[in-house]
Amino acid sequence: MGKLHLCARCAQLGKTCCQLTEIHVTAGDVKRIAAQSSRIDFYEYRRPVNQEYAADDNDPVWQFLVFRPDGSRRVLKQQQSGDCFFLGPHGCQLPMEARPLICRLHPYLYNANGILDGVLDQRCPSHLLESGDSLPAVLGMSLEQARTWHNTLYAEIKFSDGDLVNENWTDLRPAV
Question: Is the separation of the CB atoms in 51 and 67 below 8 Å?
Fold first, then answer.
């Protein structure tokens, strides 16, 4: 039997990013996921359970555009166990092109100005890499692809989501 993928080895250590992260989804994410899954019951609006999300001031643009006036934001629902709505026994059930942009970007760290070069999420188990391997390469992503996803993410959060099904709030924030 072949060697387990890095994400599978990470899962053997305990809870993973697919189980511990509150995933914001853009209007574009919702449309892509709905088209792929034929579902619209996979997201909700709620305030952060993990207060690190609410208190994160490293990216004021993100804070201003993602959070609604009541402090809630659109996130993927979680299963009763805390797992992502789309996490199955063999990993994510969504193909890469339908996954939320935030999931695609992981483990790169970023802000409104771009990908933070050379900075990766320290929660990702880089200690499981073999000598000479890089985390992005093992995960099958390039910095260029991450930059494209980042640009798409920020473009999507900057535009109105009013055309979505089930949208029922008025954006009271001033125009940017």
Answer: no
63 confidence band (pLDDT: 50, 70, 90): confident
Q: What contacts 140, CB < 8 A, 6 or more positions away?
A: none
Number of domains in the chain: 1
Sign of the four-CA dihedral 65, 71, 77, 82: positive
pTM above 0.90, yes or no: no
Would residue 162 count as lying in a domain? no
Contact (CB, 8 A) for 26 and 157? yes
Give residue 109's domain range.
16-157
* Residue 20 resides in a domain: yes
- Domain assignment present for 174: no
The phi, psi pair for 130, rounded to 5°, reads -80, 155
